[in-house]
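Q: Hi! First time asking for a complex rather than a single chain. Here are the components, and I think there are two in total. Is that enough to go on?
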Amino acid sequence: MPSDTLVLGFDTSAAHCAAALLCGDRIVAIRAEEMSRGQAERLMPLLQEVLAAGGADWRDLAALGVGIGPGNFTGIRIAVSAARGLALGLGVPAIGVTGFEARAALAPAGHLPAIPAPREQVYVAPPGREPSLIARADAPSPLFDDAAPGDLACAIARIAATRRHSEAPPPAPLYLRPADAAPSRDVPPMLLDG
Amino acid sequence: MQRAGPMPQTLTVLGLESSCDDTAAAVVRQMPGAGAEILASVGHGQAELHGAYGGVVPEIAARAHAEKLDVCVIQALGDAGLDLGGIDAIAVTAGPGLIGGVISGVMCAKGLAAATGLPLIGVNHLAGHALTPRLTDGIAFPYLMLLVSGGHCQYLIADGTQDFTRLGGTIDDAPGEAFDKTARLLGLPQPGGPSVEAEARHGDPARFRFPRPLLDRPDCNLSFSGLKTALLRARDQLVAEQGGLTRADRADLCAGFQQAVVETLAAKTRRALTLYLQQDPPEPVLAVAGGVAANEAIRAGLESVCAEMGARFLAPPLSLCTDNAAMIAYAGLELFRDGVRHGMDLPARPRWPLDDSSPALMGGGRKGAKA
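A: Yes, that's all I need. Here is the structure of the assembled complex.
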């Protein structure tokens, strides 16, 4: 069993399954697979492979880091739900890390971390501003929008490690867009004697 | 699927359910030679989240489940006075249902199972309903089951914990959907089941003669979509003539609609019972499950068919008729005894018929019964 603090970071916020194991300040195992579907089936086996590659067991973990998006709604729920189940079962904290925070750790100087969204849009969170969904063409500065999934998982693990002692609510998906839902179109008739 | 080793004597199973608009967790225990006992059963309904939309919105449901499942588990364990060390297996609804919610439940259960090393058991939501009579009353196989809810309507013969034969079911909408739609068309509150039933109580069921679909066919299949259309036409005709509805019109429409559902279900139940009784079961039982089984008129109709045909009528308490996690924990317990175990690659399935050998009743549409 490794003696340094172990933190497992993972992310399924886009068309990938990615995980990294941080031991002290070293990443000791990474797995990242591109996939447009099947993350719910693949995530847990992939996490087990990362632990095994790092010579660790679930019980060795001090904390979990999970990517909370924004991104694919189903994808972020897959990772967040797994993280909350694991945290409850292990009795360790699960720490939610936004896609902006993870990319900020990776972005070249002068580039704005951006998360690709459908229809030529990106999610951005410029310093001091609320995160939002904008057209790619309206970006205020050069974008960093092609983070490798494995790098994201490493960044998530590192950020979670720095926060593992701070009190925080359980991780929750960061959607930034309301659910698609239209109020019922059925208009009831007038009640004549109502 | 893997096979298990020796069985512990007493089994305690944690169950998770999130396939529609209830987030739920429960703990069920069975001692050797005794009936099963529900140690805890908690649920967070989402009615207020979906109220404005006149029905369950899948994305809204999925969002709520993802942040409530672990909370429900903590509460259920607390109510049962246990921690995860007192649990022998983790059961979770793995389908059929709204896939966003099912995925959250499956992932939370996988996380719990991986962390604790406990066995994971994926349960068919319909099997949860179909095995409930064994949880509540210790009924022996084979029995006839009518699942009748907002998402489902089917007749099943239960021959074993994993052995179900579907005799028939709805080819379009479930009756619960028709009740909800009726409530929306008449300006009554959601969910439509209780509000339409309350209204029907002071209405005249004979004033509007709505269709009893598929009664001319000898099988056990049902259809409720034409009934909704017939109700809409009757309503629109009254509105065209009078400029609106009177309270009496509304009550009569509800009574006529409910009567059509009652008679259709009674007639098809008679056919399903006839087929089931041909098996010569030693103690014939018709059991119902699903929220629609709470309707007193429907229940009375089914009871009288059972009395006429010499079968016992069994309706679990409402809290175990509607979606709940105790039935998932119990089904998981029975499957665990059968040696069923699932791996960490357990899929979440939007469609998962209990009886794979029967032909599909539905097309590939997104609405309607899920199996």
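A: The longest helix of chain A spans residues 73-90. Let me know if you'd like any chain examined more closely.
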